Amino acid sequence: MTTTALLLTPDAELTHLQLPDHPEEQYELLEDTVTGFPRPAIYHRRAVLHVHDNGTGLPPNPAAWALASFWLGRPLPDPLHGPIVLTGPADDDTDTYTSLPADLIQQAEHAAAAAAEHRTTNPDTPFAVQLAAAVDARCMSTPRPTRASEDTPTP
User: Fold this and answer.
1) Would you say residue 150 lies in a domain?
2) In this structure, which of 4, 22, 77, 149 has its CB flanked by the most CB atoms within 10 Å?
3) pLDDT tens string for the chain (155 positions)?
4) Which of 19, 46, 152, 33 is nearest to 102 (CA)?
């Protein structure tokens, strides 16, 4: 079974990844990709952001920050740093991460596009306010699920 994930870089570049099927191989790929210990961060029930454990020395990742803020429903108090891998939640039976759902992939694509556009068109404006507004506007085309739909398993 193929596991689809996304790599979101500090430059707002988004790359589709295929994760291995074995837990140890997934971990090694995540570790290599985030350039250190991959800490899972949960900002959405159907997604995991794999971030560098402490981010020391890594550049901020505005697109990941804006996406996580959108999913959480409020701005994160601190920036996220370095390359970040997005997956679906862990499968308890196989100890592997699942594919990121298609609607969340679309929201990540919107966040990356908004961050890239913001960086080129508004280089001197306050980052957090402008980018959060841009991501909210783009991601609203794929709205956050309601509580009832979050608890309903997806096929």
Assistant:
1) no
2) 4
3) 689 999 999 989 999 999 999 999 999 999 999 999 999 999 999 999 999 999 889 998 988 998 998 899 888 888 899 999 999 999 999 999 999 999 999 999 988 988 887 766 655 555 555 566 666 666 655 555 554 444 444 44
4) 46
> In 10 A of CB 103, how many CB atoms?
15
Tokens 């402008």, located at residue? 130
Retrieve residue 28's tokens: 């090694």
Range of the domain at 10: 3-142
Farthest-apart Cα atoms in the chain, separation:
48
For residue 127, being part of any structural domain is answered with: yes
The predicted model scores a pTM of 0.81
Q: Please give the angle made by the CA atoms of 149, 150 and 154, to the nearest 5 degrees.
A: 80
The number of domains in the chain is: 1
Element (H, E) at 20: none
